[in-house]
Amino acid sequence: MSLALSSQKTKLEIDQLINSVSWYHSVELLPGIVAPGSLPKNGRYDVESLLQFVENNTNDLSAKKILEVGTWDGPLAFKLKSKGYDVVASDIQNPDKTGFNVTSQITGLDVPYVRCSVYDLQRHFDAEFDVVIFFGVFYHLKYPILAFERIAKILKPGGRILFMGSGVSHHFESLEGLPLASEQANLFRQTLDAMDAAGVPLCLSYPGNYLNGDNWFMPNRNALAGWIKSSGFTVGAIQGTPNDWGVLSLRGWAEKTSDRTIHEHGLVGETGGFLSEVEI
């Protein structure tokens, strides 16, 4: 189903707007009018399934304030808005370049947009959100734990984070980004599956080049749970399903239960520990 059913723009105006920017998500903006994005490679971006995931893992969204971190061109944020939900979007990208503002102009849906990094959320928001949506971001970050900590700071007590992202499954590369042979990869996968089943937290670490993308850390379910727990959350659920690229598609939710994060290191003769205020 499209993001909106009609537009105040003419067909010519809509075509000109669509062609004026670069799209990432291939999503139906209006009935029969699709943004020419690269994701997915074949077909349409399944924003309906994402909406269902959000609704199924929160309680009565109609009474909640929502922030989507990493919205890009905004299909999920606009879909939430079309359902009448109170949603704000944020991303590091320029909304004039990604299609976010064009989507707003075409659909007539008005979603507030804050251009900032996940690390800088506290500079723009107080602890005001009931739900933060964090899809497709953490594995692109140098500091994923810091990102979860910063999200916790802008959630209300008992607020919920919904997360999706990539983890380690059965595609392995060398440090230089060269894929391993299938026989060796299968052996590693068996080992990792056994470690995951035993509750061992583990992740791959690359210098931003995994799968030829801006991908730094690929955790298993237990490692992701550890990151989230250390950031002031109680994990509700984490699921993982291998995809066609040999990567684990991770998704789940957690609730903010504390304003205290786990310190990096204890201090001699003092209680607590050292928690650096990292500037990104």
TrEMBL record:
<dbReference type="InterPro" id="IPR029063">
    <property type="entry name" value="SAM-dependent_MTases_sf"/>
</dbReference>
<dbReference type="Pfam" id="PF13489">
    <property type="entry name" value="Methyltransf_23"/>
</dbReference>
<protein>
    <recommendedName>
        <fullName>Methyltransferase type 11 domain-containing protein</fullName>
    </recommendedName>
</protein>
